[in-house]
Amino acid sequence: MVQKAKILLVDDRPENLLALEAILSALDQTLVRASSGEEALKALLTDDFAVILLDVQMPGMDGFETAAHIKRRERTRDIPIIFLTAINHGPHHTFRGYAAGAVDYISKPFDPWVLRAKVSVFVELYMKNCQLREQAALLRLQLEGNGKAEAGEAKEPAGLLAELSARLAAVEEQAEALSKQLGDESTDAAAVATAAHLERKLTGLRRALDALEPGTPGDQAAVN
């Protein structure tokens, strides 16, 4: 069973959080509320999120300050942040949002369909990365097993290698289709860059898996 991705919604106004939940409910993912920057940072200590929707204007710690804290933490620095704002739409204000680490900056009122489409891209990228980590973990287990097995006691690796290769091929096909879709639709540069990074990771994993084939040198290949 594929685990649902978590999406963090940060806004100090309950009615705004309710509206975001209504818009994103069709994605069938786990929506997590936070009514302040402090509450958002607390949630990020224990859970992994596919994307963060962050209101700019909040009492106390505003969206810019919250984003700065998120980007300073190693655990959370790579989570995409979409800023939502109803104030000053000038270029300086927008630049400040991107400088704080946002992948997008959307003014209220926004088109629900556009917001849902943007969030769905990052959810899909997150899912692909989760699949990649699972395949990498299986590969590491196989590498460790090969290193520890004594002569005559090694388990037959062909079946596991075939299963790993098939699973990886499925992820590669999905990642290729996603990259083509992003390119055709001229989606945000940040999403395109994330997809390209995912494909590079897949290429490294494929090379490592190929190195495990019988008679192929480089059994100690690693996934970067």
TrEMBL record:
Organism: Streptomyces coelicoflavus
Coiled coil, from the record: 161-188
Alphabetized PANTHER family for the sequence: RESPONSE REGULATORY DOMAIN-CONTAINING PROTEIN, STRESS RESPONSE REGULATOR PROTEIN 1
Residue intervals of the Response regulatory domain: 6-123
Superkingdom as given in the UniProt entry: Bacteria
Name of the protein: Response regulator
SUPFAM superfamilies the UniProt entry points to: CheY-like (SSF52172)
Positions where 4-aspartylphosphate occurs in the chain: 55
GO biological-process terms attached to the record: phosphorelay signal transduction system
Record-linked InterPro entries: Bact_response_regulator (IPR050595), CheY-like_superfamily (IPR011006), Sig_transdc_resp-reg_receiver (IPR001789)
Keyword tags: Coiled coil, Phosphoprotein
